[in-house]
Amino acid sequence: MNGLQAAAVALLLSLGGVGCANAQAQAYPSKPIRIVVPYGAGGGIDVISRQVGERLSQRLGQPVLIDNRPGGGTLIGAEQVAKSAPDGYTLMVTTDATMTINPHLYAKLPYDPVKDFAPITQLVFLNQLLLQNPAVPANNLKELIAYAKAHPGKLNYGSYGSGSQPHLAMEILKSQAGLYIVHVPYRGLTQTVPATIAGDVQLTFSGAASSQVFIKSGRLKALAVGGKSRLALLPDVQTFTELGFSEVPANAWFGLFAPAATPRDIVVKLHAEVVRILRDPEFVQKELIAKGYELIASTPEEFTAFLAADSERNARAVKISGAKVE
């Protein structure tokens, strides 16, 4: 076989590969899809995953099943997805904890956040509120900082564990403002907000969906919120950026991933369908704006670039916080 013949054979083979890939994407899905959520049922990420999954099932004509795999700081669910077949039938919805915090928190991970996953889309931002028990004599962030400086060590704040988003956010705020506030780790969000209302701790972070009822009833004060703009639900609450603390990482994000090596055509198809769901005006108003979420709906390329930048940001935050998990 001469060089020209070899080149022709190679071209035919490559075209055949493209044809197979296209056929695979057109046939996909032909069976149920499983979305692993490495968190327990009932939380914000679980609710959004189920809402998107239900609509995705309608669009694709196949069942989309939500599989909650909590535990191990999201390591259990993430490892399972990383080791799943890259065929588009096992996906994952998770947060920054899995992808851009854990790599700096754990000495060793059972998965590689870059090599083992194919980013599909960043779904939303959950911009977190700094919440305060009303017994603290402060009505805004400036007054809280002044009070904390005048009473070092008197205030406590609750987080849902070392290296969690509230822990990192408060440690950055403490570092920038020169504060001494004591960290009290709890086992989850379901404990930190009630503990703040009860006065067991004076401060914590939470999203608007789980805290707005307590804010509006006066059981908690909202002093600041993460993100670039104020929440439509609580338009009087200033952002950390407005208040001069743009580096405080007071937000979390939810994103959709597939195992690495999932065919590109399948990733593109999933991205297109999920983004249509996210951008539906009814979904935006009812499920996102009404619950304090910020729509993102990025492309796989945009999400990949964001992940790299977010990992760098969280590396700095983890270092400042001193958080570490063996």
Describe it.
The chain is an alpha/beta fold and 326 residues long. It is 45% helix and 18% strand. The protein has 11 helices and 11 strands. The longest helix has 25 residues, at 3-27. The protein is globular and about 65 Å long. The termini are far apart.
Overall SS class: alpha/beta
Record the strand order, biggest sheet.
Answer: 2-1-3-10-4-11
The total number of structural domains is: 2
CATH level-4 homologous superfamily of the largest domain? Bordetella uptake gene, domain 1
What is the topology?
Layout: H1 3-27, E1 33-37, H2 44-60, E2 64-68, H3 75-82, E3 90-95, H4 96-105, E4 117-127, E5 129-132, H5 141-150, E6 156-159, H6 165-177, E7 182-185, H7 189-198, E8 203-206, H8 208-216, E9 221-225, E10 251-259, H9 264-279, H10 281-288, E11 293-295, H11 300-321
Parallel strand pairs: 1-2, 1-3, 6-7, 6-8
Antiparallel strand pairs: 3-10, 4-10, 4-11, 5-8, 5-9
Helix pairs in contact: 1-9, 2-9, 4-11, 6-11
In brief:
With 326 residues, this protein is α/β, with parallel strands linked by helices. The protein is built from eleven helices and eleven strands.
Summarize this structure as a short list of keywords or feature phrases.
alpha/beta, D-Maltodextrin-Binding Protein, domain 2, 2 domains, six-stranded mixed β-sheet, five-stranded mixed β-sheet, 11 helices, 45% helix
